[in-house]
Amino acid sequence: MFRSIQKGKAHLLIALCCLLGVSMGGTLVQAEDGAAASYNYSFWGDTVASPAAYQATTLLSGPGLGVGPFKDPSDLHVTPDKQIYVLDSGNNRIVILDEQFNPVTTIDSFDRGGQADTFQSPQGLFVTEQKHVLIADTGHNRVVHLDQDFKLVKIVEAPESELLQDTFLFQPVRVVMDKAQRIYVMATGVFDGFIEFNADGAFTSFIGANRVYIDPVEYFWKRLSTRAQRSQMVMFTPTEFTNLDIDDEGFIYATNGDLWGDNIKKLNAQGNDILRRTGYFNPQGDVRYTNENGPSRLVDIDVADSEMYSVLDSKRGRVFTYSGDGHFMYVFGGIGNQLGEFNTPAAIERVGDDILVLDKALGEITVFQTTEYGRTLNEAVRSYYRGEEEKAFQLFNQTINMNANLEFAYAGIGKSLLRQGDYEEAMKYFKRSMDQRNYSKAFLLFRKQVMREHFATIMTVIVVLAACALLVRKYRRTMVRKRGVSIE
Amino acid sequence: MNKELFKYPLNLIVHPFNGYWDLKYDRSQKLNLIISFAVLFLLAVTNILSSQYSGFLVNLFNPNEMNSFMEVLYVVVPVLFWCVANWSLTTLMDGEGKFVEIFTSTCFALIPLVVINFPWIWLSNVISIQETAFYYFSNSVAVIWFVFLLFVGNMTVHQFTPSKTIGIIILTVVAMGFMAFISLLFFSLVQQIIAFISVIYQELVMRN
Question: What distance in Å separates residue B202's CA from the closest CA in chain A?
């Protein structure tokens, strides 16, 4: 404790020196030529070099696809059979592409009781496993539910609840549907979380509201102000969500614009956050950033198989991918003019292992494909998730050969070594991945093993030593007694 | 003499009241100083070794930030600050201690930090994460013991009452803060002066 206090003092000293003397150069360490290399974060929070896991291969634009230019497309969705639905908001239509990026159809209207109805700047799109299409028809303040043949199933209108103010305007921007056909809608100006509708389209509840963050300084001033002054001040309101996705098990993954706290959440049916955050840092986008630029602003999330998920940072145009345990796997993208960089990235989606990034202002979709490294890492995380220790062991070894800086991979190797019974080697790997809990597990087993092997020797030594000590004591006592007698 | 070198400080930390009395009135100052410097040295060594060799479960230490020289400074500077601040205050407040006595009593108080923490460097390598509780417990014991010895040492050396000693200790800590601030100010000013002179020199050299 004493030392840590001294150390804190020393840090303070250094910080003060920096303030007084030279200005700190807090720039983000970034790999040179964006396409060839990437970065990762070490246990200590340093940016370390890493090979690129994804590379941009194709750029898709409306004219190139033969469907006319996209105008402010805001969302896209990929079905399990790899059909790509692009929501072309500015043109009020949905463009459907197949796996080879050939246009299949375009939906720009639907039949409503014999009359053709259209969309008005829709912002969100979701396609279910049965290929039902849900459109957050923002301009018309409704959510449209079409079936696989694009026939109208139902229209969800503004929720009716005493929880909402009279002036509330229902502006759905994102929408998902779970397997029980419940619809979750993210609407602008709603701070209570997502709006949940049941299968019939009736409002049921709000789910997963963000916590309110209270700025202590602001709070202090508020305490000092009069009621009239307070009413003029900004209210403490929870932040809105920025996007959501739903996984196969019905958990909602959501991103929000929080500058403090967790900006990625995994919500269960009760609206509790159950995202596993066992990585070196909580999943949040960039860990190191300058004060001027601030943390990542996440605008989209996409859940893949094996609990992997990717988030899109609109501020720096980067796509971060995390494993289910919360380990940062890889990052790619950026803001710029080259292939693989964006202007205003708005949505991401996976097609198999490829990742599509939608650029809103340019109306383009960039296709990213895995490199050798990315493929191996994806497969390693998958087999680890499935519990195939042997395969994960091999794949993690391969990834480490390509990227020795990937610290969490060492824990993967350690775990399979632990299962194989090679405790000493497992300890080494856990140490390398700074995994204290598993290191301790391996160490306990190793200690037991050593103790068993050398039990006989250890006990012999102890017994012999005890006997020696006893003899010496006895000998001394007799000596003292003799001397004492002789003196008297 | 040789045996005394070990027996005396170890006896002092378990019998602080008698021990510090001896330190002030009976023992030779030379012996006290030798032991004091030895303790400072050992504490620095303990800290260096513990940041390098302590078990992985209790010691997450970035090897890039490990600096033995700084570890020595973390021991020596606070002790010197403490002694100077304490001496400055107690001379004004009727303390009977001389600077040497303050220094030696402070160094003797550091002995538990060595005696307890040193074996734990090696022991911490053979414990599991559940057993680290013992490690942290003995670390706390060492710190508490150290504070207690510091208190008794200060009280005995200056012949203060307990309540006055507590007051003096608090004031000393405040004075240490002031000293740290002033030395920072001094260093930054010197730095600026040096920078100023070097800039002038560069301008002159570049002018041709």
Answer: 18
Q: Are residues A353 and A476 part of one domain?
A: no
Q: Tokens 């001040």 correspond to what residue?
A: A233
| Domain range for B170 | 2-207
Contact list, A3 vs chain B (CB under 8 Å): 47, 74
Q: How many residues does chain B have?
A: 208
B112: tokens are 């538990």
Q: How many domains does chain B fold into?
A: 1
Residues A261 and A382 in one domain: no
Residue A485: per-residue pLDDT:
58
Task: Report yes or no on A265 lying in a domain.
Answer: yes
Whether the pLDDT of residue A30 is over 60: the answer is no
Kindly determine whether residue A443 and residue B128, on different chains, have CB atoms separated by under 8 Å.
yes
Count of the separate structural domains present in chain A: 3
Question: Which of B58, B107, B184, B199 to probe by mutation at the A interface, max A CB count within 10 Å?
Answer: B184
Query: Which bin fits A345, alpha (ψ -120 to 50), beta or left (φ > 0)?
Result: beta
Is B180 in contact with A13 (Cβ distance < 8 A)?
A: yes
SS3 category, A371: coil
| CA of B129 vs chain A CAs: smallest distance (Å) | 6
Locate A31 and state its tokens.
């790999």
Same domain, A217 and A271: yes
Domain boundary pick from A303, A335, A369:
A369
Distance from CA of A308 to the nearest CA of B (A): 28
Instruction: Using CA coordinates, name the residue in chain B closest to A45.
Output: B62
Residue B63: which pLDDT band, with cuts at 50, 70 and 90?
Answer: confident
**Cβ neighbours of A105 (radius 10 Å):** 11
CB spacing of A13 vs B188 below 8 angstroms: no
Residue with tokens 């202002």: A361
d(CA A299, CA A317): 10
Which residue in chain B has the smallest CA separation from A428? B56
A232 against A378, higher pLDDT: A378
Whether the Cβ atoms of residue B155 and residue B165 lie closer than 8 Å to each other = yes
Residue A443 belongs to what H/E stretch? helix A436-453
Q: Which residues of chain A have a CB within 8 Å of the CB of B60?
A: 434, 436
Residues of B contacting chain A (CB within 8 angstroms): 47, 56-57, 60, 62, 64, 70, 73-75, 78, 113, 126, 128-130, 139-140, 143, 146, 180, 184, 187-188, 191-192
pLDDT tens-digit readout, A177-231: 999 999 999 998 888 889 999 988 899 888 888 777 778 888 888 888 888 888 8
* Alpha carbon of B61: minimum distance to chain A alpha carbons (Å): 9
Q: Which residue is closest to B195 within chain A, CA to CA?
A: A21
- Work out the number of other CB atoms within 10 angstroms of the CB of residue A348: 24
CA distances for A324 relative to A306, A328, A378, A411, angstroms? 7, 10, 12, 14
Which of A328, A346, A369 is the last residue before a domain boundary? A369
Per the structure, the complete domain to which residue A482 belongs is given by: 460-488
Q: Do A333 and A392 belong to one domain?
A: no
Q: What is the pLDDT at residue B120?
A: 95
Work out the burial of residue A378: count CB atoms within 10 Å of its CB; fewer than 13 is exposed, 13-18 middle, 19 or more buried: buried
Q: Which residues of B touch A21 (CB under 8 A)?
A: 188, 191-192
Q: What is the CATH number of the domain that holds A295?
A: 2.120.10.30
Task: Tell which phi-psi region holds residue B94, choosing left (phi > 0), alpha (psi between -120 and 50) or beta.
Answer: left
